[in-house]
Input
Amino acid sequence: MENVIEAHDITKKYPSQKGQPAVAGLNLAIPKGQLYSLVGPDGAGKTTTLRILSTVMEQSSGTASVMGYDVRKHPEKARRHIGYMPQNFSLYPDLSVLENLNFFADIHQIPASRRKERIAEMLSFTRLEQFTQRRAGALSGGMKKKLALACALVHDPAVLLLDEPSTGVDPVSRRELWVILANVVQQGVTILVSTPYMDEAERCHRVGMLYGGQMLVDGTPDEMTARLPFEIIEVKAKPRKAMRQIVSENEIGGILEWRPVGDRLRLAVANHNGDSLRMMDTLSSRFAEAALDVRLLRRVRPSMEDVFVHLVDEQRRAQ
Output
């Protein structure tokens, strides 16, 4: 399958930057119709990568192309095929929803014969039909994101680059936004989206995990969780302090690492020869001895967050 987004050994170092580059030797190969996410914390290099691919900035070294056009040598040609939605709200707050859409239609030179129909499609697609006369600055956070997405799609691009589109919106709007993105992909559009949320990565066909400007791993969510050298046990018991103390005791061998998630603990246990089952039996006995009220003690499917935490810990130990 032909790749519509490619990056080869992309590096970006800002003039004022010391030490590690913002992006260091990044490679990407994303085929048509794929939903690909770049995942990582702030400062990982996600925004810089999207800015390079969208032709907003140039890389320090390496090459990148969108729809076969080198983003440095032929930015105008590449730009015709790209819909770009930056992280910060970049529309005109004093213009109405409809005026913003018309403005972006002007920028992309959408013919008058097609413009009215395309804008109507975008309003329907993002459920903004009832808000055409409302000023963009008066919209809720979720509606601003939908309007920005509609403006990025109004010229019918083949590639959509989204920088943390769901950051700062409520859970309902966040879910609605991802439903819209799934529909966009079904129409054959290729989407590269950055996100700090690991649960969003699980919605994507492939994931690239960035940390410190470097790609830690690339693959499908299932491939990534399958590579983990451990299983996950989830524990919830009261009193919590006693639960933590028992889990952290050195004499309970086999717990590789653990971390709190809400009111429960997620334990990483070696996945060889029934280690996780033996650990569950050991914990059950220790909890019973301490008269703990055990609400949960089970094996669960590893998450993308488990993958990321493990990879970052490995990276830090290597450094």
Observations:
- The chain has a mean pLDDT of 91.
- The longest strand covers residues 3-12.
- The chain has eleven helices and 14 strands.
- The radius of gyration is 23 Å.
